[in-house]
Specification:
The protein has 125 residues and is mainly alpha-helical. It has 2 domains: 61 residues, no CATH class; 61 residues, no CATH class. It is built from 5 helices and 2 strands. Strands 1-2 form a two-stranded parallel ribbon. The protein starts with 12 loop residues before the first helix and ends with a helix.
């Protein structure tokens, strides 16, 4: 996970895009291409991506010809990450009143996940 922006439920995805992109670009200056779903489509979002360090925003859509559930590889990465986070009891429900508290618990969950993966890699080698 490169970055995370927790917002109240009444904030649209597009509105949270620019603050998230700005914070991610501060750390990952080499970032050139972003993949997003249809919620981020629109000229304003694409223009904001270009202004913030010449990032190309690519909207990933499922095929119109596809019927039923179809796995879209680039979107599946995000859904898989949500599944991993869903294993953490604290994140299953919204117990937090403050968005910064929720952000901290998501970051702790990702640290826990990555630490366990690194530990497994070290044990196998």
């Amino acid at each position: 996970m490169l970055g995370l922006n927790v917002t109240p439920a009444d904030v649209q995805d597009r509105e949270g895009f620019l603050p998230l992109l700005t914070s991610v670009r501060r750390v990952f200056v080499f970032l050139q291409r972003l993949f997003a779903d249809g919620a981020y489509s629109g000229t304003a979002t694409a223009a904001a991506a270009k202004r913030t360090g010449k990032v190309v925003l690519e909207i990933v859509k499922r095929s119109d010809a596809a019927k039923g559930f179809v796995v879209v590889a680039k979107r599946w990465v995000v859904e898989r990450t949500f599944g991993w986070l869903g294993r953490c009891r604290r994140l299953v429900k919204d117990f937090e009143n403050l968005t910064r508290t929720q952000l901290a618990f998501v970051q702790l969950a990702m640290i826990r996940l990555m630490t366990r993966r690194i530990a497994r890699l070290c044990q196998s080698s």
